[in-house]
From TrEMBL:
Pfam families assigned to the protein according to its UniProt record, in alphabetical order: adh_short_C2
Alphabetized NCBIfam families for the sequence: PRK06125.1 (NF004779)
NAD as UniProt keyword: yes
Keyword field: NAD, Oxidoreductase
Name of the featured protein: Short-chain dehydrogenase
Protein family (similarity comment): Belongs to the short-chain dehydrogenases/reductases (SDR) family.
GO MF terms held by the record: oxidoreductase activity
Presence of the UniProt keyword Acetylation in the record: no
Length: 260
């Protein structure tokens, strides 16, 4: 299927690894030109070299810590007139209300919550002037599944879901679509660390983390490619009537509820 994305310019934050790197590959495979932001210059450069070699697309890089003062403005200037913004940077720490103190909570939200909101605020007007654009927020299914042991993340993700739906409910009036994506567990380095932590707490041995996968749908986490492909479709004109909603990719985890 031709997704009609060839030649479009896509900004991906947190692009150097995990889902971010997978998104870069998926959009490049569709012929998109990329503007990539992440803290690690070395990882970004290695990613860019591979993308240019494999797909022949244009790749611009901005190595930057997006929590620094003035960083959002720098990213918006770097991005220019992008067709698609993918907010992906940041990870909110796990733990209960007392594990995550006020400083850690605010630090986690600075990038994952306020960073998303501030970058949308900066880029949306340029899209509105052109009368078109797509904004995709990578959120996470923790916002649908309030978790005592992931309280900062559950709360932050729920806030981003509300933000996405509130903005996307009106954004088509400006020619812009705003959509959230809620991945569940995804096979990245981050989920491997989370599973080890859970295995240590629940089973007394972090090396038994693979046993926890048995409870996931199909006995595994989602692949990066399974998640990235959905982002690319949602960004495309094939999904032109989609806005103000959240798409969940978790194998049914969020829906697997029972009263018995």
């Amino acid at each position: 299927m031709d997704l009609k994305l060839s030649g479009q310019r896509v900004l991906v934050t947190g692009a150097s690894q995990g889902i971010g790197a997978g998104l870069a590959h998926a959009f490049a495979a569709e012929g998109c030109h990329l503007a990539l932001v992440a803290r690690s210059a070395d990882k970004l450069q290695a990613l860019a070299d591979g993308l240019i070699s494999d797909y022949g697309v244009q790749v611009s890089l901005l190595p930057l810590d997006m929590t620094l003062p003035g960083a959002i403005e720098r990213v918006a200037e770097f991005a220019g007139d992008v067709d698609v913004l993918v907010n992906n940077a940041g990870a909110i720490p796990g733990g209960d209300l007392w594990d995550v103190d006020a400083q850690a909570w605010r630090k986690g939200w600075e990038l994952k919550v306020f960073g998303y909101i501030d970058l949308v605020r900066a880029i949306y007007p340029r899209m509105k002037t052109r009368g078109r654009g797509v904004i995709l927020n990578n959120i996470g299914n923790g916002g649908q599944n309030p978790d005592f042991n992931y309280i900062a993340g559950s709360t932050g993700n729920a806030a981003l879901m509300a933000f996405t739906c509130a903005l996307g409910g009106r954004s088509l009036e400006d020619g812009i679509r705003v959509i959230g994506v809620n991945p569940g567990p995804v096979a990245t380095e981050r989920i491997a660390k989370v599973l080890k932590s859970h295995a240590a707490r629940l089973l007394g041995d972090e090396n038994r983390s693979s046993e926890l996968l048995a409870a996931y749908p199909r006995g595994r986490a989602a692949t990066v490619e399974e998640v990235a492909d959905v982002f690319v479709y949602l960004a495309s004109p094939r999904s032109s009537y989609t806005s103000g909603t959240i798409v969940t990719i978790d194998g049914g985890i969020s829906s697997k509820r029972s009263v018995a």
